[in-house]
Structure formats: C-alpha cells, structure tokens
Write a structure and sequence with these properties.
alpha/beta; single chain; 6 strands; Rossmann fold
Length: 179
C-alpha cells in the first residue's frame, strides 16, 4: 500500500549534502508508488518555541509562522524523514527548532509510525552522528507506536556537492524505495 512520506530537509544550505540525501530518498519513495514531499526549512520562517504550552490544549502553536503548516503535514504523513547536517555532533538548530515546535503533535492522533534519519557530517567517524540519533530518539519516544526505521550516514562531507557520486546517495534512494 502506498504511503504518504514527508521529508523535512533542515539544512540552511538549499543545495547542501543532507538535502541531496533527501532528494534521493524522495526519488526512491516515488519510484515505488508512494506519495512524497520535501519541505525545505530554509525556505520557511520557523521561530523558536516559547515554552508557553498553549499548544497542549489548542493542538496548534500560537506563533503565527510556517511551523503550523509543517506540523499539519507531519500529522497527516505515514512516514517522517528528517534530513540534517550534523553540527558539533548533533542535529542542526533548524531541526531542533522544528522538533520543539512540533509539540502540538504530542498526545495527538498522528498517522506517522515510521521515522527515518538522513544525516551528513564533515567528520568521517560513524559515531559523529550518534548525538543526532539520540536527540531524534528522544522525540520519537514521545510518540506512542513510532519507531526509527533507518539511518543514512553521509560521512566526510562538508563542502556543498561533496556527496555527489558517493555510494550513500544510492543508499538513500534504496531506503526511500523500500519505505
């Protein structure tokens, strides 16, 4: 059965390496009959969470920016894919801000049960992405029945385009195809 796949690309660089992983994942998902969409946070206005907790009752954030549209897409997706560059061994600030702003989804009747992570780091060591995985697993743990289904690690990439012709792009395509 076809799935609705939402890919949240969190790089501040539109043509960044993690965004390339997102694009390949999308191609793979589409090739197998799924519906897929990439939301580029660099094209959105996403403010920081204010911690007011009004969203707990309203099921909507009171901050009037693009985050509410992204949250609605998240709520209605079967699969959520986070694509992020790794900064100082953790997710980008843009990803963390969107995770924090997704608080209206906590305790809601969300469709998503599968989460994937596509991450790129300048560091070559596989552990460079561990902090990002831990942070994402914290968010996942707050949503019943949701699990981390797969992780793609683009290692040793910093400059825009460094990921081109690397096997990890094919891995992202295949993971998307098998979502």
């Amino acid at each position: 059965m076809a799935k609705k796949v939402l890919i949240i690309a969190t790089s501040p660089r539109k043509n960044g390496n993690s965004n390339r992983l997102a694009q390949e994942f999308e191609k793979g998902a589409l090739s197998n009959g799924n519906e897929a969409e990439i939301v580029y946070l660099c094209d959105k206005k996403i403010s920081f969470c204010k911690g007011c907790m009004a969203c707990s009752g309203l099921r909507k954030c009171v901050i009037n920016d693009d985050a509410n549209d992204v949250i609605e897409k998240m709520k209605n997706a079967d699969v959520i894919v986070w694509a992020t560059p790794v900064y100082y061994y953790n997710m980008s600030g843009q990803m963390k801000a969107m995770i924090d702003r997704s608080n209206p989804l906590y305790g809601a009747d969300n469709k998503f049960k599968e989460v994937y992570l596509l991450a790129c780091a300048a560091e070559n060591h596989p552990s460079a992405i561990d902090g990002t995985i831990v942070g994402l697993k914290g968010w996942i743990a707050c949503h019943g029945g949701v699990s981390l289904k797969g992780v793609i690690k683009g290692l040793g990439v910093y400059e825009v385009g460094a990921i081109e012709n690397m096997p990890v792009l094919k891995e992202a395509y295949e993971m998307g195809k098998n979502v």
